[in-house]
Amino acid sequence: MFKTQRINGFAILIGTLVDLCGSVAPVMAFGFIQGFRMASQGVPEAERQARLTALFQNPVMLLGGLVLGAAFSFLGGFVAARIAKNAEIMHSGVVGGIGTVLGLLFLASPESGPLWAEVAGILLTIPVAILGGHVAGGRRKGAVV
């Protein structure tokens, strides 16, 4: 009745790394560059921290981070599905699930943003990753997506 599918751990690992590294690395690099720029201008440490906090709490930055995170969740789901070559939705859903769990863990940290941005990111992760898997599966099978 039900056909069992093997889970490809490598596909899930690579998809998760694409999602996490792609979502986190640009934000960290941007923060590092801004901090370095301010330090080179002689801005005191406490003021640098306050400016960076204000910058990352800016609604435009929060929305940009949300879009960036969603794009990399899509890409992570897509990559996992393409590597797995079967059960695309399942593999991309697992990638999204891992991202959601990590997002929930981050929610409890002092570095988390406003609740609305964190909740939006958490709610988008699984559906966007699954969409990536759906697109990957459709492209692999030659369907027009």
Report the β-strand fraction as a percent range: under 5%
Q: Which consecutive residue ranges, at least 5 long each, have pLDDT under 50? A: none
| Helical percentage | over 70%
Q: How many structural domains are formed by the residues?
A: 1
Largest sheet: none
User: What general outline do the C-alpha atoms trace?
Assistant: elongated
Q: What's the helix count?
A: 5
End-to-end Cα distance, whole Å, is 29 Å
| String of helices and strands | HHHHH
Mean pLDDT: 89
How big is the Rg? 18 Å
The SS-based structural class is mainly alpha
Number of strands: 0
Keywords:
mainly alpha, 5 helices, 145 residues, elongated
Brief write-up:
The chain is an all-alpha fold and 145 residues long.
Overall description:
The protein has one domain (10-140). Helix content is 81%, strand content 0%. The protein contains five helices and no strands. The longest helix has 32 residues, at 9-40. It is elongated. The mean pLDDT is 89.
Topology of helices and strands:
Elements: H1 9-40, H2 45-57, H3 59-84, H4 88-107, H5 115-140
Helix pairs in contact: 1-2, 1-3, 1-4, 3-4, 3-5, 4-5
